[in-house]
Design brief:
The complex is a heterodimer. Chain A is mainly β. Chain A has strands at residues 3-5, 9-13, 18-25, 32-37, 44-49, 53-57, 60-65, 70-75, 84-91, 98-100, 104-109. Chain A is built from no helices and 11 strands. Helix content of chain B is 0%, strand content 55%. In chain B, strands 2, 4, 5, 6, 9, 10 and 11 form a 7-stranded mixed beta sheet that branches. Classes of the chains: A mainly beta, B mainly beta.
Chain lengths: 110, 115
């Protein structure tokens, strides 16, 4: 089956850079996704990596190493509004549904 | 314009009751999902429908019955509600149900509280 590990909490200050790691074990791998969820809100898509390397989208970047079964989400120039939960996710073996990690709660302070 | 909508947003009910949650998407997507998020924020897939056909039923008690009257709607009916059913239920949709860069769009969630 699929399983993912990510830290439960990360804290940082405004303007800093934070990296949220995710390691996974899968039977069949299609790619690694990241979602953001603010308290009381819905998860929203951030990024998807199917190939090794770094994908950059504004202040957020996502990295994947398929050989290490590892990825991370990099958040730069942190802002208070980045305080949220961040979930990594992989597809199930059939490639028909996302399996989510337990989420990392990021707290950004001033 | 709302992409994925759910009703109701909050649902408080007694144990043993039957309730339904409705979901609609106006994105023209082929695949819709139901997820359950517990108090520890663990987000777990329950069902997936592709073009009105059930694709995934992830070891969910048969008290939960999804219904998809058309590909824009996926409703969730729950019979004989139990305390452990208390959670936030999210509906989501994606262009198709296959792997790939298949961004899922989530509804606002329905917070179900069973007393």
């Amino acid at each position: 089956g699929q399983s993912l590990e990510q830290p439960s909490e990360v804290t940082a200050v405004e303007g800093a850079i934070v990296q949220i790691n995710c390691t996974y074990q899968t039977s069949g791998f299609y790619g690694l996704s990241w979602y953001q969820q603010h308290d009381g809100g819905a998860p929203t898509f951030l990024s998807y990596n199917a190939l090794d390397g770094l994908e950059e989208t504004g202040r957020f970047s996502s990295f994947l190493s398929r050989s290490d079964s590892y990825g991370y989400l990099l958040l730069q120039e942190l802002q208070m509004k980045d305080s949220a939960s961040y979930f990594c996710a992989v597809y199930n073996q059939a490639g028909t549904a996302l399996i989510f990690g337990k989420g990392t709660t990021l707290s950004v302070s001033s | 314009d709302t992409a994925v909508s759910q009703t109701p947003k909050y649902l408080v009910t007694q144990m043993g009751n039957d309730k339904s949650i409705k979901c609609e998407q106006n994105l023209g997507h082929d695949t819709m999902y139901w997820y359950k998020q517990d108090s520890k924020k663990f987000l777990k897939i329950m069902f997936s429908y592709n073009n009105k056909e059930l694709i995934i039923n992830e070891t969910v008690p048969n008290r939960f019955s999804p219904k998809s009257p058309d590909k824009a709607h996926l409703n969730l009916h729950i019979n004989s509600l139990e305390l452990g059913d208390s959670a936030v239920y999210f509906c989501a949709s994606s262009q198709d149900g296959t792997s790939g860069n298949n961004e899922q769009f989530f509804g606002p969630g329905t917070r179900l509280t069973v007393l």
